[in-house]
Amino acid sequence: MGSPDFSDGCMVALYPPRDVAEDLVVDGGLPPEELHVTVAYCGDAADVDAEALRAVVAALADRPPLQASVSGVARFTGDEQDVLVALVDSPDLEQLRRDVLDALTATGIEVPRDHGFTAHCTLTYLAPDEPAPLDRLPSRPVRFDALSTVHGTDRIDHRLDDPAQTLQAVAREAYAAGWAASGGPMTDRVRAGCEVAIQLAIENAEDPDVLKATVDLGRLEGMWALLFTRREEQQTRHIRAVGTAWRPLIHRDHLGTGIRTFRQMVGLTEAEHSDADTRAAALAAAHAMLQAIAGQPGWDDLRAALQKAIRAGRAEGMVNAVAIAADRATVHTLALDWDMAFQHAYDSLERLDELWAEADGWLARMIDRAAADLGRVLAQHAAAGSDWDEMLQAAMDAIGSDDPQAVAFVVDWAMTAAADAGALALYAAEGVQRIDCITAGDGRVCPACVDAETGSPWIALEVPRLPLHPACRCCYAADVDLSRFAAWFT
Fold first, then answer.
1. Closest-CA residue to 66 (of 23, 29, 36)
2. What is the pLDDT of residues 209-225, one digit of tens each?
């Protein structure tokens, strides 16, 4: 049976995606491009202003795409013909229809109310006694991405856009642009910062400067990523250098003699020794073995390597302070020549005698840390009944390997402390009065770090001395006169 001619009417409708429409087509029925869900039928096109209709629908399109489902097939009966339809179900469709009717009425466009509303998609028209081409339609999801106006033969699709999703995409691009401008690497912190920045943008969507703030956040996270990457590169390089100077001082024969003395000490009598006694004896023996390396050939090389590490840490801290100040002043941090600035700062520290005293202090900590590691190993192997060879090999693995933990731990801590001291020294020279503490935002942030950041800005004389703990990655931040460091910028 032929389809009625609606070419002189007008309506607001939803058209399914092409693949869904093609799957719904039945033999002798409507072609896929004509399948639709009528939201509101507005009567004759001649009685409705097309531009007014389109303006109403364009305003209503500021909402997410509509999720629905084809929920079965039905046959509407009539006197002259029946209509076979696919039923469409969605709670959002009910709300959409109410919004459309209210908006049309407010504009003066009257909608005929001859029938109730049953959301459906007409598939074909049938004679009353004609059998249906199908009696069951499997359920399937359908997403409508546009709300359409049909005025006569003219159809305009108004894309449905979720403002939050749109802002999410734009905010992600803004954050990425800021990160790219910083020149920093892509790190887990940068990725996590992106998600936080997007959420903040959505929560503050009404702020006209929200995207500028998102760009700034991306640039800041990128700058921090660059700052910490450079620090880690410096620390890795100097841990390797100090380790190279440390290993020749750990003599297998010397350790072997010390271990033999320790074994005799804990087995001198038939009396039983407690675990505490064994641990104390092991620690004492470890200290005795390691104190003996001071003054040996190569000791001065170790001391010099650690002094260079501290000097590099100070220089990097000075550069970081200027980089952070440049970022706070919204100066493009790519203009900072990081390597040239570091070398300039490093050279300025060449005659700073206090670095040698600092090196001696950190060397003492390194010896203590290594002694603790060695003592723990000796105690464990004594309790396990290990023989001399096993105990000696374990001792060499603990403090004489290619990657002794004591060296890495102390060099990392020393360079971090030096970087923070370098920043404070630069601030003092520049007469800075207010200083912020900023956490690195990673898993190493402890309550003390959070308190230091929360208490910012600090009076210069009262600012907490960073690092607050080993492996701390907090930094100082303050405003400085960048013109005094013009030579560091390109």
1. 36
2. 888 888 877 877 888 88
The secondary structure element, H or E, covering residue 176 is helix 163-182
Model confidence pLDDT, tens digit, residues 439-454: 765 555 688 888 998 8
Quote the radius of gyration of the chain (alpha carbons, Å). Answer: 38
Q: Which helix (H) or strand (E) holds 389?
A: helix 388-399
Mean of pLDDT over the chain: 88
Structure tokens at 417: 């402390």
Three-state SS at 191: helix
**Does residue 138 sit in helix, strand or coil?**
coil
Confidence of residue 274 (pLDDT cuts 50, 70, 90): low
Residue 66 has phi, psi (to 5 degrees) of -90, 125
Q: Is the full-model pTM beyond 0.70?
A: no
Tell me the residue type at 362.
W
What is the pLDDT, as a whole number, of residue 228?
A: 85
Residue among 88, 142, 109, 80 at smallest CA distance from 12: 109
Closest CA to 315 of 341, 336, 352, 334: 341
Task: Write the CB contacts of 179 (distance below 8 Å, at least 6 apart in sequence).
Answer: 186, 190, 194, 218, 219, 221, 222, 225
Give the chain's domains with CATH numbers.
9-159 (3.90.1140.10), 163-222 (no CATH), 223-488 (no CATH)
Q: What is the pLDDT of residue 88?
A: 95
The residues near 154 (Cβ < 8 Å, ≥ 6 apart) are 50
